[in-house]
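Q: How would the structure tokens look for this protein?
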Amino acid sequence: MPDLATIPDGTYAATARSFPVVATVRLEVAGGKITEFTILRHRTGKGQAAEALAAQVVAHQSIDLDTVTGATLSSRVILKAGELALRSALPGAQ
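A: Here is the predicted structure in token form.
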């Protein structure tokens, strides 16, 4: 996970996929903290429980969290989308 102190304030979004799961997330960073983590889209068969990770990301200020039991793939995809969103904010990111 990128160091939050290096992420400029702003809103960032990204999508991650691992068939059959797709997740698009948006997160807001202010003052070196994740202030909001929103799951905009989560297409999955049975991993809805993983959506609880959104609140945990903000509470723990990290995307390096354990997966939700019974929703491992969905958890990984949601957290990967969060990582990609943060990385998109780094200098030189495309």
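The CA atoms of residues 5 and 76 lie 24 Å apart.

Residues 4-88 form a domain with the Sufe protein. Chain: A fold (CATH 3.90.1010.20).

Upvote if useful.
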